[in-house]
Design brief:
The complex is a heterodimer of chains A (about 650) and B (about 300). Chain A has 26 helices and 19 strands. Chain A is an alpha/beta fold and about 650 residues long. In chain A, the strands form six sheets. Chain A has a five-stranded mixed beta sheet. In chain A, helix 9 packs across helix 12. Helices cover about 45% and strands about 15% of the residues of chain B. Chain B has a five-stranded parallel beta sheet, with helices on both faces. A four-stranded mixed beta sheet of chain B has the order 7-6-8-9, with helices on one face. The chains are: A alpha/beta (about 650), B alpha/beta (about 300).
Chain lengths: ~650, ~300
């Protein structure tokens, strides 16, 4: 029976109502045997970089060689999140999770796991006590997460709409179109108190309502996938890995708002996201889930993709809308909100990828379920890009309210190389740093703002004691001065001046009064810039000053960089008692600044040294003869000798 | 030029010379035929002599003001349209202007895009054929501004324009068109930009604004192999500067530079979006996680 339906749908494909969708789902599921062996290979960007394509190719040829095509299904899925350990391969139905898989491992996996049903120990996750973990869900990195939005990524081939439908995809849209009025959809989202995941945390329901009530017949809905924050890639993985969830949410939003045209604005650096979204749009149209008369409801809606062209400021809502019009993506003053007058002066509602992807869940499971997760002011879960000096880097989804400490230590597995935690940076260039003593702060829009940082879109960059906080502030200001569109004076000039001061401090030329001057400029920029890029641009400076003022003072007063990062303030020095005269550093020095000979103690000629750090890196750890010392100290010691 | 005479000219009446001349230059560059007058009497004389497509009138002129002038002009030629511009806007004069048949009332300083929209809605799209003439004149008038061989472009599509773009006329497709041209050729040549300008009827200045604003575009030819070192925050704290130094050292290039043999172009990028692997570099679309100095060398050699 199911096969007949499937055959019928093959010829018809277009679904004419919710019952068609349910039938199709049944048909897909009946064709799939849940006990069949299925190898899923993570094909997110991280694993891609580790060579997941080669791994896939090896699986295909090896399985063919062994004649297992009928027994084993191979599926390339979206990002699993544990990017640190790519390529990630999970063998279903047992959910055996192999990490760091290389093409050479495939014959063994096929022979041992797929044929004999045995587990290969060496490819498993090993916890700190040396215990091997077989199942993906038991790995601490995953165990402490609640992956309600991101979790389906690992089951779905993003290029195949059937995978999404099999998991209940588009059932929320069917429910909305057949059982709910636009008003009731809006009320449900408002009741859920879904706040925008893009950074600002503005309640999505209220924004939708504004656009809905704004005068005019033509209205637009937009997916903001211009993920510009350096150090964040949640939206990318979601759009690449599960594009239909975003499109379903967008269509539901369009229905609630009364819009018939949508846009997906994707960052230029994300070609795979563009590709997968395009395929998803095609397939959704084919099935009648997009276009005219969606699911026989009479509701029309279609979506266009717009590629960004590489400008951070164009992620700002008014700038993004100008860019969609084909103009330079610069922000404009928002006396009239874009919700009322956006693209071509029409009411336009913009939400971030993650926000849209959360909508179908709210519809399916209800506002009460959603608002049962999280804190008083921040509901649901949030995906973070946990990166930097932490052991388990990757994408993590946690309920709002989880303390930062749990994310960094329980999920992230603590700091790399046994170093000491110093700070975690959240909120991208508009955010700030949060020091050790505030690590118990829960992730919550309002709590994070109180620390002087912010939630932002979800970048979470962990820093250890070898990260210089002045350098971090300088890094962000450098980024912002590049990305400021230059339209308003406070942002253009203010950032430039702050950067100039920071450059001088890092170069060891900081002056008395520089800190005060920074603070003064920061306040002016904060209060008078045109858009959020400007008004928040001082945050990296102010928050590092707030918690790490002593580091600034050390740079200025003692000409010392405590973290040993600022080149001008450090010197490399070979400890004579530890140097074995092995010639390794001498040979590797790109400028020939190291003198000495075999079994002779080496010496760095400071006037030639460019402080590239190669000697420090190559000196065998059993010797550890090369050290970083404050340049002033070395100079003093030299003087003393003379 | 025969075609140029077919398009009705625009008459700008403005007593302030800077405003008058800059409007003239801008409109000419946008492809319109423009005449100017500094006061009403001269303007009326010109209107009596020949037909204009549109009047752009300053509200406050010595002698006859802009609105009066519009009334008198329309008495002579009822089909004439006018746009009033002023630094002293008031509701009263705006209503008055509309009553006299003004199609727009713009407060100085105004957005040139807005003005152009208004003109276009009156005169229709610029006839592309008349543009090369203007551009050529300008090239002669203003040395230093490089204008390509325009006659050729007006006749044929530069070969670097991908086939799928050749029939697009939707202005909002501008950025997408430029992206496609950039992808295909690894840079935007002047020929290509002029062609896009003619095709879409978007002023060349605006296209340069876009081409220089976005990082994706390059106005210089790029090397055959593109090397991007990620400078995202996650990469930065994990030693992106060190990786960049290694790459600079091997390629003997600084970010933004292209090697003399056109093999490599080195750039930094704000975030490649694979932060867990940092520091990362991307060569010809392939990502490499924290390569050692030897590995970097190997990757570049494999390109050749």
């Amino acid at each position: 029976m199911a096969n007949l339906v499937a055959a019928d749908l093959q010829t018809r494909t277009r679904l004419s109502g919710p019952s068609d969708l349910a039938e199709l789902r049944k048909a897909i599921l009946s064709r799939r045997d849940p006990s069949k062996l299925c190898v899923t290979i993570c094909s997110g960007t991280g694993c891609h970089a580790y060579g997941s394509e080669e791994v896939y190719g090896s699986f295909v040829s090896e399985i063919q060689k062994k004649g297992l095509q009928k027994k084993v299904e191979i599926r390339r899925t979206g990002c699993h999140g544990f990017c640190e350990r790519g390529t990630v391969v999970v063998v279903f139905p047992e959910e055996i999770c192999y990490l760091h898989v290389k093409p050479d491992d495939i014959p063994e996996i096929v022979a041992t796991t797929l044929t004999e049903g045995k587990v290969i120990e060496r490819l498993l996750y090993e916890d700190q006590d040396g215990q091997k973990v077989v199942h993906e869900g038991d790995i601490p990195f995953y165990k402490h997460q609640s992956r309600i939005v991101f979790g389906n990524n690992r089951f779905i081939d993003p290029k195949n709409i059937e995978d999404y439908i099999a998991l209940g995809g588009y059932s929320a849209l069917a429910k909305v179109l057949s059982e709910m009025t636009p008003r009731s959809v809006l009320d449900e989202v408002k009741k859920a108190n879904l706040r925008g995941r893009g950074g600002g945390g503005f309640p999505a329901g209220i924004k939708w309502e504004t656009t809905r009530n704004a005068p005019g017949d033509i209205k637009y809905v937009i997916v903001n996938a211009d993920e510009g924050d350096p150090g964040a890639y949640m939206d990318r993985s979601l759009l690449e890995g599960n594009p239909h969830s975003v499109l379903e949410g967008l269509t539901i939003g369009a229905y609630a708002i009364g819009s018939h045209e949508g846009f997906v604005y994707v960052r230029q650096e994300y070609p795979l996201a563009v590709e997968n979204t395009m395929i998803a749009l095609e397939q959704a149209r084919k099935y009648g889930l997009l276009g005219k008369n969606i699911l026989g409801s009479g509701f029309d809606f279609d979506v266009k993709i717009h590629r960004g062209a590489g400008a951070f400021v164009s992620g700002e809502s008014s700038a993004l809308m100008t860019a969609i019009e084909g103009k330079v993506g610069e922000p404009r003053p928002k006396y009239i909100r874009t919700a009322v007058s956006g693209i071509w002066d029409r009411p336009s509602n913009l939400n971030n990828v993650e926000t849209w992807a959360t909508v179908p869940l709210i519809i399916n499971k209800g506002a009460d379920w959603f608002s049962g997760i999280g804190t008083k002011g921040s509901k649901g879960t949030k995906i973070f890009s946990l990166v930097g000096k932490v052991n388990n880097t990757g994408l993590v989804e946690v309920p709002m309210g989880m303390p930062l400490r749990d994310i960094i230590y329980k999920i992230g597995g603590g700091i790399r190389d046994g170093k000491k935690f110093k700070a975690v940076q959240t909120g991208g260039p508009s955010g700030g740093v949060i020091p050790e003593r505030l690590l118990d702060t829960p992730v919550d829009f309002d709590e994070l703002t109180k620390t002087g940082s912010m939630m932002g879109s979800g970048g979470m960059i962990v820093m250890d004691d070898t990260t210089c906080m002045v350098d971090v502030a300088r890094y962000f200001l450098n980024f912002l001065s590049d990305e400021s569109c230059g339209k308003c004076v406070p942002c253009r000039e203010g950032i430039h001046k702050m950067l100039k001061i920071l450059n001088r401090i890092c170069a060891g030329e900081g002056r008395k009064g520089d800190i005060e001057l920074l603070e003064e400029i920061a306040v002016v920029v904060q209060t008078s810039a045109l858009c959020a890029l400007g008004t928040t641009s001082a945050n990296p400076v102010l928050s590092t000053l707030k918690y790490f003022r002593d580091e600034y003072e050390a740079h200025i007063n003692e000409k010392r960089c405590p973290a040993g990062v600022c080149k001008a303030l450090i010197a490399y020095y070979i400890q004579p008692d530890k140097c074995k005269g092995c010639m390794i550093c001498l040979r590797n020095c790109p400028v020939g600044a190291i003198s000495g000979g075999k079994r002779e103690v080496h010496l760095i000629q400071q006037n030639k040294c460019t402080k590239c750090g190669t000697c420090f890196e190559v000196c065998p750890s059993r010797f550890g003869a090369v050290t970083k010392t404050p340049a002033v100290q070395l100079a003093k010691a030299a003087e003393h000798k003379h | 030029m025969e075609i140029a005479q077919k398009a009705k000219p625009i008459l700008v009446v403005e007593d302030e010379s800077i405003m008058r001349e800059s409007l003239r230059d801008w409109l000419a560059e946008a492809g319109y035929h423009v005449e100017t007058a500094e006061e009403g009497e001269k303007a009326l004389k010109a209107i009596a002599e020949r037909d204009f497509g549109l009047l752009i009138l300053d509200l406050r002129l010595p002698g006859t003001g802009g609105i009066d002038l519009l009334r008198q002009a329309r008495a002579k030629r009822p089909q004439l349209k006018g746009i009033i511009i002023t630094a002293y806007p008031s509701v009263q004069t705006a209503i008055e202007a509309m009553k006299e048949g003004a199609i727009d009332y713009l407060q100085k300083p105004f957005d040139l895009n807005r003005l152009e929209e208004s003109i276009r809605s009156t005169l229709g799209p610029i006839q592309a054929e008349i543009r090369p003439k203007v551009a050529t004149d300008k090239a002669v008038a203003k040395p230093g501004i490089a204008v390509p061989k325009v006659e050729k472009i007006a006749l044929e599509v530069p070969e670097e324009i991908p086939a799928q773009l050749r029939n697009i006329e939707d202005k909002s497709a501008l950025i997408q068109m430029l992206l496609a041209i950039q992808r295909e050729n690894r840079w935007l040549s002047n020929d290509a930009l002029v062609w896009v300008s003619l095709k879409l009827g978007v002023p060349l200045t605006q296209i340069y604004h876009i081409a220089t604003f976005y990082k994706a575009f390059s106005l210089k030819p790029q090397g055959r192999h593109s090397v991007f070192v990620c400078a995202g925050t996650a990469c930065h704290v994990r030693g992106a500067t060190g990786l960049l130094n290694k790459v600079e050292d091997k390629l003997k290039l600084k970010p933004g530079q292209t090697s003399g043999d056109m093999e490599f172009t080195l750039n930094t990028v704000n975030c490649l979006g694979c932060c867990a692997l940092g520091p990362v570099m991307m060569v010809d679309g392939k990502y490499h996680s924290n390569p050692s100095a030897d590995k970097v060398k190997e990757i570049f050699e494999a390109c050749k």
